[in-house]
Amino acid sequence: MADVLVTVPKSSGLDTWVAEGDAAGEPWSGLEWHFYLGGPVPNIRAGERVYICCNGRVRGYAPLIRIDRSARGYALVRHGGAVAVTIPEVVRGFRGFRYRWWDRSVESAFPAWREP
Predict the structure, then answer these.
(1) What kind and span of H or E run contains 69?
(2) Which of 11, 24, 31, 109 has the maximum number of C-beta atoms within 10 A of its C-beta?
(3) Taking a C-beta distance cutoff of 8 angstroms, is the pair 52, 59 a contact?
(4) Sign (positive/negative) of CA torsion 107, 25, 115, 97?
(5) CA dist., res. 36 & res. 19, Å (int)
(6) Residues 112, 29: Cα–Cα separation, whole Å
(7) CA–CA separation, 87 vs 38, rounded Å?
(8) Given the DSSP bridges, would you call strands 4-7 and 49-54 parallel, antiparallel or unpaired?
(9) Nearest-angstrom CA–CA distance, 108 and 116
(10) What is this structure's pTM?
(11) pLDDT tens digits for range 53-80
């Protein structure tokens, strides 16, 4: 699998990202959500996981629906189905994406994922 990790920018913050919609534990609203990036496009397919990191913690993932390309970059598209999980390590923020480097067996449920 080619799961990827992206970082919610500090400038927008966790609350803004959560307010976007279809957060972990919420039913699908029927809408699609785009996480915009520039640079190289990851080698990821529909159904693989896009993990989110904010404030040094992995907060969870959502299944990728597709990648939309534009003249300014691309967007990782998701909708419902987000799951709150974390890993037992601090993850510093970064631009772009990284491929998942941890084994899924180290992931644990993260009921406090909305806390800073």
Answers:
(1) strand 66-70
(2) 24
(3) yes
(4) positive
(5) 16
(6) 22
(7) 26
(8) parallel
(9) 18
(10) 0.92
(11) 999 999 999 999 999 998 889 999 999 8
Report phi then psi at 104, rounded to 5.
Answer: -60, -25
What gap in Å lies between CA 72 and CA 58, rounded to an integer?
A: 27
Helix/strand/coil (H, E, C) string of the chain?
A: CCCEEEECCCCCHHHHHHHHCCCCCCCCCCCCEEEEECCCCCCCCCCCEEEEEECCEEEEEEECCEEEEECCEEEEEECCCCECEECCCCCCCCCCEEECCCCHHHCEECCCCCCC
CB atoms within 10 A of CB 55: 15
Residue 7, SS3?
A: strand
CB 77 within 8 A of CB 68: yes
Integer Cα distance of 81 and 25 in angstroms? 8
